[in-house]
Amino acid sequence: MTSFSTPYLDITYRPEQHVLLGRWLRAVMPFELQQGYAALLEAAAEHNCRFWLLDIRRRVGVDSSDVFWIMEEFFPKLQPRLGRTTYLAFLMSPHHLAGVLANATIPSLTYFDTLPYQLQRFTDESTALEWLQHCYQQDTVATQ
C-alpha cells in the first residue's frame, strides 16, 4: 500500500483490491479541489489504476462551479491519461447524496453510460468497494 497526504486529502493505493482511495478530509477551496484531483490522477497513472473510491463525506455541499470543472475539465483527462474506462465510486453521507440528487447541475448517472468514465454514488463503503471489484472483474474479462 502506498500513500500521499495533504491537509485536505489522503490518497492511498490498495494493490490487493486494485483500488485508488481518495479521502477528502475537509471542505476545500476550488484550487484545493483541482490540486487534489490532479494528485489523484497522478497517483492513478503511477499505479495504472482505473478503479477509484472517492470518500467525499467530509466535504460539505456541492458548488456548481466545482461540478462544472470536474465535468468539463477533469473527467475528460481520465481516458487519455489512463488508457481505458475509469470507474469512480463516490462515497457520501445520506444528506450529501440527497443534495446531489436534488442539484439540477449534477447529471443523473445514466448521463455517463456512453462515456469513458463510469460513476456510482454510495453511502456505504463496503458496497462501493464491491461495485469496484465487480467492475474490475468485468473489465478484466472484457480485455482477455
Please, could you describe this protein's structure?
It comes from Hymenobacter sediminicola. This is STAS/SEC14 domain-containing protein. It is a single chain. With 144 residues, the protein is α/β, with parallel strands linked by helices. The chain has one domain (2-142): STAS domain (Transcription Regulator spoIIAA, 2-Layer Sandwich). Helix content is 44%, strand content 23%. The protein is built from four helices and six strands. β5, α3 and β6 (117-122) form a beta-alpha-beta unit. α1 packs parallel to α2 (64-82). The longest helix has 19 residues, at 64-82.
* Radius of gyration over all CA atoms, rounded: 14 Å
Fraction of residues in β-strands? 15-25%
Number of strands: 6
Largest β sheet strand count, sense and barrel closure: 6 strands, mixed
The strand line-up of the biggest sheet is 1-2-3-4-5-6
- SSE-based structural type: alpha/beta
Mean pLDDT: 93
Please trace the helix and strand order, writing H or E for each element.
EEEHEHEHEH
Q: What number of structural domains do the residues give? A: 1
Gap between N and C termini: 26 Å
Overall 3D form = globular
Low-confidence region ranges: none
Number of helices: 4
According to CATH, the fold-level topology is Transcription Regulator spoIIAA
Going by CATH, the homologous superfamily would be STAS domain
Organism: Hymenobacter sediminicola
Protein name: STAS/SEC14 domain-containing protein
